[in-house]
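Lecture notes, unit on protein representations.

Consider one protein chain, 431 amino acids long.
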Amino acid sequence: MRKKLLSEGSKEFKYEIREIVKKANQLKAMGLTIHWENIGDPIEKKCQLPAWIKDVMAGLVQQNQSYGYCPSKGILATREFLCTKNNALGGAQITPEDILFFNGLGDAIFTTYQLLDQTSRVIGPSPAYSTHSSAEAAHANTEPITYRLDPANHWYPDLEELENKVKYNPNIAGILIINPDNPTGMVYPLESLKKIIEIAKKYKVFVISDEIYNKIVYNGAKSYALAEYIEDVPGIAMKGLSKEVPWPGSRCGWLEFYNKDKDSEFSAFCSALDNAKMIEVCSTTLPQLALPLILGDSRYETHRANLNEQIGRRSALINQILSEVPELMFNPTYGAFYNSMIFKDGVLNNKQTLPIENPKIRAKVEEWSEGVSPDYRFVYYLLGATGICVVPISSFCSELQGFRVTILEEDEEELVKVFTSLRDAIRGYVS
């Protein structure tokens, strides 16, 4: 080509959660049965939506308006419904003009970072969720900036490190919170959230709170929405239907803007997000029509509570199985549907293996394991030896060595079988 096509930031687009699928499918083609523990799709893991939700969808499919464009910001009645829910929390108040719909939260995340000035950075948690870290790094044409979640302290954020990084890096314009957290399953304590708001206020930065898992908490935990503690700091809450209903195929996410009137730069940024959606025309109509009918139904809270109870029970089963491995730094989960297991220092090396009977699979795993991070090596051998597909923690912008699993398998007998096999594979690998 006469000109360079790719930007420098394009190399930051990494999503190991799906990259590992390519390798797993290669082994599947060689006859290996795969147990997919890499991606958070409840439907793939046999979650069955109740008939009344399907009836809502069936009714909407018969309505002609479901097939047309909607307003660029989103359907007004749906935005009014969301305002009522938010304002009932008693914290930051919003109007329908403070809500903007996207085709999934991934669309919202990429657009948000894309419109930031290249020199304005958003610091996020590490281990980092790949969609955020990749999009933020790509917009800045460099590596992401992160603050540490501490596995030795329940995965809670290192707030001293966070403040120091914000204080001494004037390019940091925003702080990202993912609450409940992906990939760790940690739920931020209210005291930590309030401290982050203090930091944001002190250094005049805005806050982004990814709340896609906000309603998915269990085992006694409570997750706070940004509106409840943000006070007068400018901020954006990111929400969606994919995990909560769950309806990942809806690709329906939205932003809620708080305190636009408190800062002219932030207000202009929110307006630019609105304008970007107008250029795109609008987001998908059908899920927006369904949203108030599902979330506003009297049966919905019971439905969500039942799902949370099941996730909490599965979490306890995994805790029981994997906490028996002394080489792991293990934290129980209280939100979302993931757990991140960290190998203690010195446990992993570049010589460890697992027995793999199929010579073609063994050769492929050996090829993949050359020169990679130790946790990648473990993940590849685990995949080849057992068919269990997990994601290495170092792929989440972390120096830690470990792996992330999901807590989604509806068949508890299958879940126990898979995680017992995982436990035994770890023992064999590190012995």
